[in-house]
Amino acid sequence: MKIQKSDLEWKAILEQKGAESVAFEVTRHAATERPYSGRYEQHWQDGKYHCMCCGALLFDASTKFDAGCGWPSFFQAEHDDAIKEIVDTSHGMRRVETVCAQCEAHLGHVFDDGPAPTGLRYCMNSASLDFKDKKASPDDKGIA
Known about the structure:
disordered C terminus
C-alpha cells in the first residue's frame, strides 16, 4: 500500500528523524543535493539504507561503491520492488529517476555505467537515505 501524506506531515516526519536540511526538497520535490555534500557520500559502515521518509529498506551497504560522482552509489537495490523507476526528460536530457516504491520519495537516478554484476549505478541523494548500522536492530517494514 502506498503511503500518502501532506507536505506538512512529511516535513514533521523528516524533522523528527533529524533529516538533513535539504531532505524535504530532495524527497518531495525532486531537488538534488550538491555533489560531495551529503552525509553518506563517503560513508562505508556495514548496514542498511532505508528511505528517509517512510523507512522502507532500499539498499544494503555491501552494494555501495565509490563512483567518484559525489553522491552515494549502489549497484543493486535490496529487492526488485524497493524502487520505482520513472523516465525523466527534464534539464534537456533523458535519465531514469528513482523513487521509493512505498512513498514515492525522490531518491536520485539510475544509470547503466555501474560495476558488475548488474552494470547499474543507483546515484542517490544522501538526504533521501537513512542508514541503520548492522549492529542496530533492523526495522525493515518501513512504516512512517
